[in-house]
Specification:
By secondary structure, the protein is mainly alpha-helical. It has one domain (8-102): Arc Repressor Mutant, subunit A, CATH 1.10.10. The protein has helices at residues 8-19, 28-35, 41-49, 76-88, 100-103, and strands at residues 26-27, 62-63. The protein starts with 7 loop residues before the first helix and ends with a helix. The chain binds a DNA duplex through helix 2, helix 3 and strand 2.
DNA sequence: GGCTTGACGCTTA
DNA sequence: GTAAGCGCCAAGC
């Protein structure tokens, strides 16, 4: 998980994620585009998956293009993520979808 | 060094 | 409007 030789790509993803202001959310594609590869959405997701909690990175503000939270495996993580976003002022739809039109943030 | 998997995105049916 | 397939980058085996 924690690699001393953290790839530059990871650091970029973390940096962009930390740039997200409170009450705003972004998508993997946006992060990938900022990094220089719009189609690297998968790599971005993979990087966030390895997001070290030591850095206190708001990975919860990064969601997919649909505005919904994926993961699926542990239902605890998305639950906490949704809770954090709602606590920050992000409104969630009853289906668990975020209104990207209002909360979508891009650099 | 090559193949497969993975928090996705976009296009086509 | 919903469903399925292809493509991208990066890491793991």
């Amino acid at each position: 998980m924690k690699r001393e030789r953290a790839p530059n790509f990871y650091r970029r993803v973390y940096a962009e994620t930390k740039r997200i202001p409170r009450g705003k959310v972004t998508t993997y594609g946006t992060i990938a585009r900022v990094l220089g590869s719009f189609r690297a959405s998968r790599a971005v997701g993979y990087a966030l998956m390895h997001t070290p909690m030591d850095e206190n990175i708001p990975w919860q503000r990064v969601i997919n293009a649909r505005g919904t939270i994926s993961i699926g495996g542990n239902a605890d993580r998305p639950a906490v993520q949704k809770r954090l976003l709602v606590r920050e002022g992000v409104h969630f739809d009853k289906s668990g979808t975020v209104d990207m039109k209002k909360y979508f943030w891009e650099p």
